[in-house]
Design a protein that fits this description.
alpha+beta, Helix Hairpins, Adenine-n6-DNA-methyltransferase TaqI, Chain A, domain 2, single chain, about 400 residues, five-stranded mixed β-sheet
Length: about 400
């Protein structure tokens, strides 16, 4: 029978229906960009840029005036917007306001026999398979005919409604989790700005401020390390990225590392516990890592490696490296032409205002508690997304 593994107690098999039979397929168009009278109004103009991880689109980056809006093909609220051209092909969203789209998007506007929310979820489930129709080419593209002829399995309307209502509740919960995470991240960013500019201070056990912060250079509170792996020992190989810091090179590069490539690792640097390392050509985008408990690993000789003195807590410095103050200091100390570098000699010249160790630890504890809340949200989001993915596989044919 043409039915999914998991379903609501409705009778009847699911029918195979082409996307084009669901309703109207509308390929968008762009109002002439040379005419300023068409842009910067109150009407929404959806491009692939606006379709990310969010299900619903309410506000777009580019907006239109009434004149510009009337140049496009109107898409009613609740339609499914599917990217059919470009690098984000396969992305799908629903519009919460009437809009028009650009030519990279096909809008599916269901007729009265189909649930808007069900069709969105069904297209989301099939997005990877539909994406494969583009084949391998410089600019991936699924033309309107091919898209319209793609076949879907669909139940009767009552079962569509039950499925879509259930999945909508999951999506709304995910939206709230993502919003909570975003608010926490914004709060952390704002409070870090206040803490490191000393607008916000902690007090000691006597109810008074700690001692004044002192001006230090990085050269005063750090020292360069990075012994070469001269014996070519096959230690675990790591790289550094701007999201996770130290990460096994094989995870960073799809299961391949310098050993499997046959590279000479004798010039790689050995990293011990509690060490910092950064890419001198990418520190401006946050490519700095802290090894923590990682010990006897190796990284490319291109990285700059250092440890700290007893005057600064490692976690305090790690938090500081993600502040605007540090980023500005990096920009004023880099050198080079086409590509700018920050080698240790220039890094050591960066000035930092440093609180006492007791105040550093209070700042670290507070920021770590915020990170823990943010990580809990991330974990909840990931679990919900995996659960939803499993449900989709059982609820659709």
């Amino acid at each position: 029978m043409n039915v999914p593994k998991l379903r609501f107690p409705e009778l009847g098999e699911w029918s195979n229906i082409k996307i084009g039979e669901v309703g109207t397929i509308v390929t968008g168009n762009t109002p002439p960009t040379a005419n300023d009278e068409y842009y910067n109004g109150i009407y929404q103009f959806v491009s692939p840029f606006d379709i990310s991880e969010k299900r619903f689109i309410e506000q777009t980056k580019t907006t239109l005036t009434k004149l510009g809006f009337d140049k496009g093909r109107k898409i009613r609220i609740g339609s499914s917007l599917f990217v059919c051209i470009g690098s984000t092909i396969g992305k799908v969203a629903q519009n919460k306001v009437e809009c028009i789209t650009n030519q990279q998007i096909n809008a599916v506007i269901p007729n009265e026999n189909f649930s808007d929310d069900f069709i969105y979820s069904l297209l989301e489930y099939h997005s990877l398979k539909i994406k494969m129709l583009a084949g391998e080419q410089a600019v991936p593209i699924i033309n309107k005919t091919t898209f319209s002829n793609y076949s879907l399995s669909i139940p009767f309307y009552p079962e569509q409604n039950k499925i879509s209502s259930f999945l909508l509740a999951i999506d709304e919960y995910l939206i709230q989790l993502k919003k909570k995470k975003s608010l926490l991240e914004q709060y952390k960013k704002g409070v870090m700005q206040q803490l490191f500019s000393q607008e916000l201070r902690f007090i000691n056990e006597n109810g008074k401020h700690f001692v004044d912060w002192e001006d230090k250079s990085m050269g005063n509170i750090t020292y360069k390390v990075g012994k070469k792996n001269k014996d070519g020992i096959k230690y675990p190989i790591y790289s550094i990225n701007n999201k996770e810091g130290f990460k096994p090179q094989s995870e960073q590069f799809d299961g391949v590392d310098s050993n499997t490539r046959g590279y000479d690792i004798s010039m790689y640097k050995i990293i011990k516990k509690n060490s910092f390392a950064y890419n001198p050509a990418r520190i401006n985008v946050g490519s700095i890592g802290y090894s923590g408990e990682l010990n006897d690993i190796i990284i490319s000789s291109l990285y700059v490696c250092f440890k700290t003195t007893s005057e600064i807590d490692d976690q305090f410095l790690l938090h500081y490296t993600s502040t605007p103050q540090f980023n500005n200091a990096v920009l004023t100390n880099v050198e080079g032409g086409v590509r700018e570098y920050l080698f240790y000699e220039n890094f050591s010249n960066i000035e930092i205002q440093l609180p006492s160790i007791p105040e550093q630890l209070k700042i670290v504890d507070f920021l770590n508690s915020l990170d823990e809340k943010i990580n809990q949200c991330s974990s909840q989001i990931e679990k919900m997304q995996l659960w939803k993915k499993g449900l989709l596989q059982q609820m659709f044919v």
